[in-house]
C-alpha cells in the first residue's frame, strides 16, 4: 500500500509539473503574482489569481486593494467599490483606499465629486495621485484653463506616464492650438517612450489631422506599451481605431492581426465581433457579413455602429431596400449625422439605376463612404473603372479615396496613369498636385498646379500653389494670389489671402497696402485689422495701437486679437492697461499660445511682478522648442534670475 501511495503522489506531482499546477501556492504569493500581472496589463489573468487567493483569505486587505485596481482596469467600478468596502474593514491603508475610491468616481463620470475629494490641502490622497486625479476631472469637465495651469505645475519628473502632457495637449487642441498639442505629444513620447496615454492621444490627433501612417504607428505603439497604463476599454478603442486605418487603406492582413489582439483582450467583446464582421465584408462575403452583423445586433441592440456597417453590407449584397430602410432609420435617430441623410437620398436614387452600370457603382461608392466603410467604396470604384475603362471619373474618385486613406503612392500612380491618357485632364492634374504635396514632392506638385493654372486660372489653384510654394520653400508664394487679385479686385477673401502671404513672406509694405485696400471696402474684417495693426507696429507706424483697438473692440474675446492689442499697449508704454487686456486674452484661452504666453510674462516683468513672470517663462521655454519670440523669452528669463 505504501508503494501504491507513493506512486499516486509521484503521478500527481508529475501532473502538476506538466500542467503548471500550483495548488500549494499561498494566497500572499498569488496576490504578489496578480500585482505583477496588473502591471504588465494581463488583467484577466490577474483576476483569476486574486479570485483564487480570496477564496482562501476573503478579508485580505492587500488582495482586495489589488482586486479594486484590476476591476477599474476592466471597467467595473461597482466591483471595485465592493472590494474597497472589504479592504477598508480589513484595515487597508487609508490613503490607498481614498485614492481608489476617487478613481471609482472618475470612472463613473462623477467629476465634481473627484474635485471635492482632491481639494488642495485636504487629507486623504497623497501626491502625485491627487494632482493627477484632479487634472483628469478638470479636463473631463472642459475646464481647460484650470487644467492647463495644473498640468504645467506637475510636468517633468513628477509626470512619468505623461498624464499632464496629455491633458495639456487636449486643452491646447480644444483651445485652437492643434499644432502645439501635436508638438507637445511628440516631445512627450520621445522623452517617455513608454507613455501609453501620450501615444494614444498622439495617434488620435494624427488621425484627425489626416496623417494616417503616423497615426497607425502611434496607435500600434500605444497598444505595445499599454500594460498597466491603459484600461481594457482604452486598449480596445485604440485597437478599433487602428483597425479602421488598416481597413480603410485595404490592408486586410494588418486588420486581421489587430483583430487577434482584440480577441486576446476581450474574446467575446462587441468591438472584436464588429471588426470580425467587417473583415468578412471586406473579403467580399457580403451575405455572410449581413448575418454576422444581424447576430451582433441581437446581442447589442443599441450599438449603432453595427447597424451602419450592416447597411453597407446590405448594399453590397444587393438588398438595396433593406439598406435604405436601415440607413433612413439611423438618419432619423441621429438627425445631426448629415452623412446618413445623404446616404439615404443616394440609395433612393439608386433604385432607378442599373446594378451593372457605372453610375450605380459610383453611387454605391458614395454611400459606402458616407457609412464609414471606405474599403467597400474602393471595391465599388474598381468595379466602375472596369465597366468604363476610358472614363476618368471612376479613376479620379479612386485616386481621391486612396489619398484620403493614406495610400499616397497609389493615388500618385492613378493620377499619372490618367495623365498619360489625358495630359490636360484638370482633375488628374489636381490629384497629382495634391498627392505629390502629401508625399513631400513639392516641386512636382507646383509644376502640376502651374500647368493647371495655365489651362484655366482659379482661386482654388492660386491658393493651392501658394501653399505648396510656401510649404516646399520654393519661393514666390504670393505670385499666383497676386495674379488672381489683379484680375478679380473685388474678391476680398483672396485679397486677404494675398495680403497674408505677403506678410508671411516679410513684404510688410506690400502687405500693408493690400490690407488697407481690403479694409477700405470691408472695415470690420477682424483678422485684417489685427494683422494690419501688427504690421504697423513692425513698421513703427503710430496707427498700430488705434488699429489694434478697433479689432479688439469688434472681437474682445478672441485671444489672438487681445494679444496684439495688449502687447502694443505695453510697447507704447501703457503697461497696466496692456496687462489688463492680456490677462483677459489669457483667460479666454490664450494660455495655449506661445507668443501670448511670452507677452504676458514679459508684461508681468515690466509691471514689477518678476516672481510671477519667471516661472511662466521657464514653463514656456521647457515646453515649446520653437516660437518667434523664443530668443527674447530666453533673454528675459536670464535677466530675471
Question: Which features would summarize this protein structure in a list?
Answer:
641 residues; disordered N terminus
Give a verbal description of the structure.
Mean pLDDT is 92; it is low at 1-21. Helix content is 75%, strand content 0%. It is built from 37 helices and no strands. Among the domains are: 1-92, Serine Threonine Protein Phosphatase 5, Tetratricopeptide repeat (Alpha Horseshoe); 390-456, Alpha Horseshoe (Serine Threonine Protein Phosphatase 5, Tetratricopeptide repeat), CATH 1.25.40.10; 457-523; 524-641, Tetratricopeptide repeat domain (Serine Threonine Protein Phosphatase 5, Tetratricopeptide repeat, Alpha Horseshoe). The protein has helices at 2-18, 27-40, 43-56, 61-73, 77-89, 94-107, 111-117, 129-140, 144-154, 163-174, 178-191, 196-208, 212-224, 232-248, 252-265, 270-282, 286-299, 304-316, 320-333, 338-350, 358-370, 374-387, 392-404, 408-421, 426-438, 442-455, 459-471, 479-487, 492-504, 508-521, 526-538, 544-554, 559-571, 575-587, 594-606, 610-623, 630-639. Helix 27 (459-471) packs antiparallel against helix 28 (479-487) and helix 31 (526-538) runs antiparallel to helix 32. The protein is mostly helical. The relative contact order is 0.04.
